[in-house]
Amino acid sequence: MGNLILVRHGESQWNLENRFTGWVDVPLSAKGEEEARAAGEKLQGYTFDKAFTSVLQRAKNTLKTILEVTGQTGIEIEYDQALNERHYGALQGLNKQETALKYGDEQVKIWRRSYDVPPPADKTELNPDGISESLKDTAARTLPYYEKHILPEIAAGKNIIIAAHGNSLRSIVMYLEELTKEQVLELNIPTGAPLLYVFDANGAIAEHRYL
C-alpha cells in the first residue's frame, strides 16, 4: 500500500473575509499562498506518484505550489469536481458572523458541521440553480470518486496527494477513520496542514497525523 496525504487548500480570500465560499471560485489570499508554500516545505522528502485536486483555483493553486516547492511538477494530476467543496446554497457569499447573528450560532454550526442537514437552497445571485449540499450529499459524490479513482492507486503501492477542501476532505476522513455522524460534527480540517495516512499491507490505517 502507498501513503496518502490530504491537504486542505491555503486560506482563500473569502476565508479571510469570513464568508461562506462553497462552489464560488475565489483565489487564495496572501496568507493562503504562504500556507501552501509552508505545506510544501513540510512535505520535503515525501515523493508522490500522482496528485488529485478539485476544479477550483484555491485547491489547484495550493497543489501547484506544493509540487513546485517539493520539485515534483512533472507528476500526473487529475482534476475533478467530485473533490469540490460542498455547495453552501443560499449562504454562499454571506458573512458567517452576520449569518450567526441572524439565525443563531447553533443553527449555523449545524449547517456548517452536521452530516445530513443542508443549508437553505434559496435561489440567489451566487446560487441561481437553488443548489445546496449537506456533508452527506458531498460524500455521495466524493467517496465514489475516491473508491474508484484514488483507492486503487494507493492499493497499487503509489503515494498519493489530494489537495481539496474542508468538506470534501471531511467526508474522506470520516470514511477512512469510520467516524460517526456525531464525531464528524466536531471535525475541522485546518488550511494548509498536510495530513498523512500510512496503511498496512491489509489496507488498515497504521498511522495518521498532521505533519
Oligomer: single chain
Span of the ends, CA to CA: 20 Å
Largest sheet: 6 strands, mixed
Number of strands: 6
Mean pLDDT: 96
Helix share of residues? 40-55%
Task: Indicate how many domains the architecture comprises.
Answer: 1
The number of helical elements comes to 8
CATH class: Alpha Beta
Q: Outline the low-pLDDT stretches.
A: none
CATH topology (fold) name = Rossmann fold
**SSE pattern:** EHHEHEHHHEHHEE
CATH hierarchy: architecture: 3-Layer(aba) Sandwich
Describe this structure in words.
- The chain is of the alpha/beta class and 211 residues long.
- It has a single domain, classed as Rossmann fold, CATH 3.40.50.
- 40% of the residues lie in helices and 14% in strands.
- It is built from 8 helices and 6 strands.
- The protein has helices at 13-16, 30-42, 57-69, 96-103, 105-113, 135-155, 166-177, 181-185; strands at residues 4-8, 50-53, 76-79, 160-164, 195-199, 205-210.
- Helix 3 links the parallel strand 2 (50-53) and strand 3 (76-79).
- The protein is globular.
Salient structural properties:
211 residues; alpha/beta; Rossmann fold; six-stranded mixed β-sheet; 6 strands; 40% helix
Helix-strand layout with pairing:
Elements (H helix, E strand, L loop, with lengths): L3 E5 L4 H4 L13 H13 L7 E4 L3 H13 L6 E4 L16 H8 L1 H9 L21 H21 L4 E5 L1 H12 L3 H5 L9 E5 L5 E6 L1
Parallel strand pairs: 1-4, 2-3, 2-4
Antiparallel strand pairs: 1-5, 5-6
Helix pairs in contact: 2-3, 4-5, 6-7
